[in-house]
């Protein structure tokens, strides 16, 4: 239930936002390439593979070893450096997620461990008002009852008014005028000054007031630690040396007790994780579009591949803050220099998955609202790219282009040990050379990729995946909204466009579904012209799982995972 998308570095890095796919329930595993290549229209019928089992069918106890892409330092998901897959996977086991998303219908329902029922939505004096009733049993691990104070502190931290809070997104929270107690501290009354249709995306994960009442608490309270929890699991240990976080069943949890005794989250590079799964050291990992990884996983006798149409896409981000890429005409030219079909076919080779180019920043190919807004920028046209670079003043001088004595030389940064990103960098290098642009390639430590390179903008180009959820526009908002001062939210392209801001604001305020989609597509057309994020293709969601692992798989967004129901069959 995130209001931001998540970048993930596991498969060349993935991120989380909200793409809500229409899905139909399914379970069990499948072999990659074992059936006919799916078409775009058939993807919606292949959207969940989790080996769904009732709790009664699972054996009690056991330990799940779950490979994640990095060992995080910032465990506040709402902080600018926190919105990552690795952080999210751990946090949702131990902190409140107040709504659930049905994987089959994408319908949002209350998590009754935290709320007594669906909040009521009313209009008071023309203002949208949402009233939450908290489960009286819900409490933090320090014994404090979960109350309106936690909601109020989170709103104050994330509404964007105090820039000392280093936030990843203010979407939705900036629309709120007040958060107060209702008839008791366990009733929360939230009043909006502007309608916000995706209000169910807010306050999840919920953090305690003690962790966010001041900027220092918000920015540093969960730095290198998770001091307070309120989930089916609690923190048993965190070891930066071994890059592992171990969570154990919390005996003070008031809901259905966790089936598993423990989950060990183990941070590893993609290549290392593939080998660890094949050797039986890991029970569950995100393989991503890696034929080599799939082949390794298929060699494990007690393992299987769980693949589905994922709410995620590969993309290349261009850093508009980079001096050589500050001219939008140069970025647009480089879009046309990229052969997306060649990249998709190369990335997906051997996977039996269609190379479905993505021409929309908000909606997936098999999602309601999708339309092709790419125009000429989505078409591979090196001749047009050369002409545009000429017009921008970058003239060919020998092998490469120069302007004012400078060579058009760019650097592509990717997380070391990520084969997909490395493959893309080599392909891009050749494509750019064909139009007279020099592209250097820099592999950086996986654990540092986001915090030290992507977030501060220390790159010219990079590639990773954005991982989606059930709120297509509001969860993507922070990726494309204009930076405010030094805070670029999740806008790693550093593009600034008031028109995009206005259109996205209108879309998330639209209570009419059809109009919201129309406004989102209008915003998308403008985003294409800004040439910051270049979508490549809708990515297959491919996981390796021990055959007996139940209620976890692909493409299951974290908001759909019921951690207390994860377990193993006999």
TrEMBL record:
InterPro entries: Peptide/Ni-bd, SBP_5, SBP_5_dom. Transmembrane segments: none annotated. Keywords: Signal. Residues 1-23 form the signal peptide. The keyword Acetylation does not apply. It comes from the Bacteria. The keyword Protein biosynthesis does not apply. PROSITE patterns: PROKAR_LIPOPROTEIN. Pfam families: SBP_bac_5. Residues 125-487 form the Solute-binding protein family domain. This is ABC transporter family substrate-binding protein. It comes from Streptacidiphilus jeojiensis.
